[in-house]
Amino acid sequence: MKIETTAKIFKELGHPTRLKIFKRLVKAGFEGLPVGSLQEELTIPGSTLSHHISNLASAGLIQQRREGRTLYCVVEYARLLAVISFLQDECCLDMPAGLQDNQQSNEK
């Protein structure tokens, strides 16, 4: 993942309301949540919610799907995992090998 892409994702998640929306959608799982339920649960005005959902979608963090008259928001878990991997990929590479092994042992 490119650093510019990751920076955009962090920028979008850096807003408290968007982070709250995203965390709730992560909790919902692969089926996502209807926008109306999200609005009601988080008590966010419709136009404000629409704006934040648009920002999360433009960063590739969520997708929307329509089932009849209901619009669902669903987390793009592959994108979320790519961001996590971006942060972890180079973790501790500058540490001497012995210290890396010791740290991994302590974490178990």
Automatic annotation (TrEMBL):
GO MF assignments: DNA binding; DNA-binding transcription factor activity
Domain HTH arsR-type: 1-95
Keyword Transcription regulation: yes
InterPro entries reported in the protein's UniProt record: ArsR-like_HTH, HTH_ArsR_DNA-bd_dom, Metal_resp_trans_reg, WH-like_DNA-bd_sf, WH_DNA-bd_sf
Name of the protein described by the UniProt record: Helix-turn-helix transcriptional regulator
Pfam family, one: HTH_20
Highest rank taxon of the organism: Bacteria
PROSITE patterns: HTH_ARSR_2
Keyword terms: DNA-binding, Transcription, Transcription regulation
UniProt lineage: Bacteria, Pseudomonadati, Pseudomonadota, Gammaproteobacteria, Alteromonadales
